[in-house]
Amino acid sequence: MRTRALVLAASGAVALSALAVPAAQAATPAAGPAVTFSQLKVNSGKNIVVGSTAQVTVSATYTVTKPANLDPNSFQTGPVLYRGATLGENSDDLLAGDGPGTCTVSSSTVLKCSAKIQFRPKSSDQDLDLFSSEAGTWKLGALAVNADSGITWQGGLGSTHLQRKATLTTDASPEPVTKGRTITVTGKLSRANWDTNKYAGYSTQPVKLQFKKKGATTWSTLKTIKSSSTGALKTTTKATADGYFRYVFAGTTTTSPVNSSADFVDVR
């Protein structure tokens, strides 16, 4: 697996860099600055949803606690997403932002920090591209870097889901239709493929068909069907009243939830 984040120290300054390096070359935990991390929140606690080509940048906030005599300008910090039992050399994957976090002094021992993390399904450097296999649950951690004393890692700061963006369509026909006749509702469930940078059908997934009567404010679920091997959806229902049809997908660990646009059917 790839290790996609780590550390560049040069000319007495320290920076976090989204360098792609083999896991075997990842920096090992070292006796870095004596700091600890807490209250890490990535993307305001929401799942991170990435489409087929566009870069997604999310914000992170966290607190750094340090010794009172440690100069806050002597080290830099940043959040890290990782997979594996431990954070560091043995992590299966690491994801970090292009630059270090920005911190403000809250007290002699506390810094309040924020950072950006970039997710690229497609970039000018293929080593930075996401793989579809990387969708799912990631653990949250952070690191501090000092040019002289090395790196401090801290894992176990929470978790998030990195998800492939889903799309969903609905088409109800015929329109208009006589009351009591059969309405056929078709659609397609697709999701971003980070390997091909296209959308492809998402197979054998449960999808709800919902109806909202004209003038109503709430949707009712008529039935649940499964997408085909190509992501296609097709079912029938009886025409009862003017109203709207839509498909709804609840999402999975790897794929975002999505509601289709509503399709209105005039019943006569």
As a whole number of angstroms, the C-alpha radius of gyration is: 24 Å
- Main sheet overview: 6 strands, mixed
The residue fraction in helices comes out at: under 10%
User: What is the CATH topology of the largest domain?
Assistant: Immunoglobulin-like
Q: What is the number of beta strands?
A: 23
Structural class: mainly beta
Q: How many H/I helical runs?
A: 0
The low-pLDDT segments are 1-31
Encode the helix/strand succession as letters. Answer: EEEEEEEEEEEEEEEEEEEEEEE
The average pLDDT is 88
Q: How many domains comprise the coordinates?
A: 2
Kindly report how far apart the N and C termini lie: 59 Å
Explain this structure to me?
The protein is mostly beta strands. 0% of the residues lie in helices and 52% in strands. The chain contains no helices and 23 strands. The strands form six sheets. Strands 6, 8, 9, 12, 13 and 14 form a six-stranded mixed sheet that branches. The radius of gyration is 24 Å and the shape is elongated. Residues 1-31 have low confidence and may be disordered. Keywords: Signal. This is Calcium-binding protein. Residues 1-26 form the signal peptide.
List the helices and strands and how they pair.
Layout: E1 2-3, E2 6-10, E3 13-17, E4 21-22, E5 36-42, E6 48-50, E7 56-65, E8 76-83, E9 93-96, E10 102-105, E11 110-119, E12 136-146, E13 150-154, E14 159-164, E15 166-173, E16 182-193, E17 198-201, E18 206-213, E19 220-226, E20 232-238, E21 243-249, E22 258-259, E23 263-265
